[in-house]
Amino acid sequence: MKNGTSPKYSSLGFKDIIVQFEDAVAVVTLNRAQERNTWSLTLVHELVKAFDLFDRDDRVRAVVLTAEPTAPAFCSGADISKGWDLLYQDESFHEGPHAHRDTAGIVSLAILRCRKITVVAVNGNAAGVGVTALQIPFDFRFAWSDARLLMPFVHRGVAPEGVSSYLLPRLLGHSRATALFLSGAAVKPDSPLLQGFFYKSFPTREEIFPGALAFAKELAANTSQTSVAMTKALLWRGADTPEGQHLLESRTIQTLGSAADSLEGAKSFKEKRPAKFTDTLSKNLTTWMPWWHEVGTVYRKTKL
Amino acid sequence: MKNGTSPKYSSLGFKDIIVQFEDAVAVVTLNRAQERNTWSLTLVHELVKAFDLFDRDDRVRAVVLTAEPTAPAFCSGADISKGWDLLYQDESFHEGPHAHRDTAGIVSLAILRCRKITVVAVNGNAAGVGVTALQIPFDFRFAWSDARLLMPFVHRGVAPEGVSSYLLPRLLGHSRATALFLSGAAVKPDSPLLQGFFYKSFPTREEIFPGALAFAKELAANTSQTSVAMTKALLWRGADTPEGQHLLESRTIQTLGSAADSLEGAKSFKEKRPAKFTDTLSKNLTTWMPWWHEVGTVYRKTKL
Amino acid sequence: MKNGTSPKYSSLGFKDIIVQFEDAVAVVTLNRAQERNTWSLTLVHELVKAFDLFDRDDRVRAVVLTAEPTAPAFCSGADISKGWDLLYQDESFHEGPHAHRDTAGIVSLAILRCRKITVVAVNGNAAGVGVTALQIPFDFRFAWSDARLLMPFVHRGVAPEGVSSYLLPRLLGHSRATALFLSGAAVKPDSPLLQGFFYKSFPTREEIFPGALAFAKELAANTSQTSVAMTKALLWRGADTPEGQHLLESRTIQTLGSAADSLEGAKSFKEKRPAKFTDTLSKNLTTWMPWWHEVGTVYRKTKL
After folding, report:
1. Calpha distance C72→C188 (Å, rounded)
2. B81-95 pLDDT, tens per residue?
3. Which family does it belong to (chains A, B, C) (predicted)?
4. ipTM of the complex
5. For all residues of chain C together, what is the average pLDDT?
6. Could you give the CA distance from residue C263 to residue B5 in angstroms, rounded to a whole number?
7. Which domains does chain C have, with CATH numbers?
8. pTM recorded for the entire structure
9. N or C of chain A: less Cβ packing under 10 Å?
């Protein structure tokens, strides 16, 4: 398919999300405004499917996730009015405690594994998974400066989910992550505890999505898809020594340095014009990723 | 023992610390004001014993460490007026260099291993171990905004102790940690180098402890003991890949999600009332911790 | 050689750098002002040689790297006007993709392995390797507050180099590192994305180097060479558990605690006078470093 052709994500029959595609940017809008965009198993499955498609669809260069700015909340987390049942609705629950897979983590991993630029436009209040799965795994976070953000795990008898206990200390350092998780305090984007977390914030809810979308389009138009993917891999799947990372970077640079995008990058720079990148993940990045050990997380039933 | 019964820590015969208990919060006050609360082997042994008890005593939900606000210092570090002898006073010193165990590190590990919420109220100047062992390993740091903090290792011919060379770069990032350790500069809590280190600061020495105690009591009253312990374990003993952490979080959530505290967490949220958590570490968190490899640090004499 | 004797670095025939020595501080000035201090293979080889000498020369206690404040730039990165050829000029290129070694990474590792205090005085604009290799691996960064800093890898079809994908997330956290790498945005030292990166900034280009040099001389005069080396090793080559780090710190403290510098450190402190440290790396730190696994990065030709 030609790069730029609009994929028909609308035909995939998503219910709890709406997916649109524009200028190489896929836009995901949470579609449960009446339920305060709370978590649902349908939402989980659709987000995983969508981010997996974005990862593999060469036409997608960036993704923006958002909610209706008029929704009562960006995402109010899990609906626990009937208890924590949602956590146990997977079919393998009765096999024992080793069989459960946190649905927030399943979504976070899908976002983290998406090799395109990911942007979230937080245009309302958020709690629980609305922060852990729907903000923390993204590359860029845009926020309404008056949004109320809450990770109340210690006040609810549970614990951090959505791989947030791995990602947040790495994003902001353990001091801020510990304070956020153990206080369970509600914070706003300008809180000292969140310094460095949001790329940009805006005073009104209506501004967030247009701001995030313009940013995503700008990056989609001017970045190399293969560069982005390799940069993300180096950042999250790097070696555990400086020397090991040097070897990874060396091979990355040589792989990219002999491909079309880097030639265009140098040429456009010399000619003082915007670059037109054409390399794609499916065609030009097939030979040596991943270099890391993947821990399998899919649960396989132990009984027929 | 009934939850809430006051444990008689006063009967344990502590000399260099005073331990009190109030509303599920254990308060440790350094009791060497006349010696500027400098380090002593007695202090080391008592702090280790106290934090080990707090960890195992289900009645303790939070710990606050502080000094007399009228003391000449919060803790002036090691008393090196007679050289570094304190470092070598352990009985195994003559067995060789492999036998020594840094006393600051012994205390830091005891604090780090305490699965309850730990808060330090730094109401005076601090140096050396007064920062490394008595501030860095805590979950929350409250400070007098005029406190002078000093880690002068490079100016004294020694090196970071108290596991600070592991913890500080993770708390604040390597850029700030390197600058603090290699400059050896005296800093105040509002220094750009300490951004994110203190949870809150107050302008007068008298305010710190009451502020920290009120905060600790609030958390002690409204947090699940098992949630707190698991959150701390996920933060400091996590997996080294996102997928591995997802497995740990999944099992954590299922373990906690079927216990009384999470049911009460959901119920109280629905009923818009404060939760009353009853799960305890000794009764409800016995089955699968620790999941990590513990490196043994106790020195065992090699000769009879 | 006597500590303080001026080493004749000028006799080493460096071309793309100028090395001077003053009060135990080695000063490296980039000497390609007419080429905007762009990268060259000569520059690479000379920087590696220089930092290797600084590491092993006991007379050197600190290093400052800078550029002429009148140069068009501190370092404009690689000169890609002829494409990315520089990346492939090493002799082993034709052996295959496993043979390449990123020249920026070779320099970064040399700086990172230098056990002395390293300071960079960024007195002009910088791009690419001018940030990754010539700023990120240093202990302290001083900057002109109006300097324009650029890491445009995703806009050029390449990826982070100079071990920056390992170091930057550790220096500042993954949130800021990701935003810097994936946006490719030009930033100034006071950008929220760079908080904690620079130790100090100055409003005019002329002030940076004198400020950095005075700071380096102050540290060179008042720090123990062995303390500095061990602190750097603990920070960048530490254990991966708190307990493991406790063992490393314990042995470090005992090694240093029985040497002349720590005795002088305690004595001078007691006598309220500046310390005069005499221990050196070549004489007093020979017995047990390194404790870590070194990944070999030197390429060895596979054919005769």
Report:
1. 17
2. 776 665 555 666 667
3. Belongs to the enoyl-CoA hydratase/isomerase family.
4. 0.95
5. 92
6. 50
7. 9-221 (3.90.226.10), 224-284 (1.10.12.10)
8. 0.96
9. C
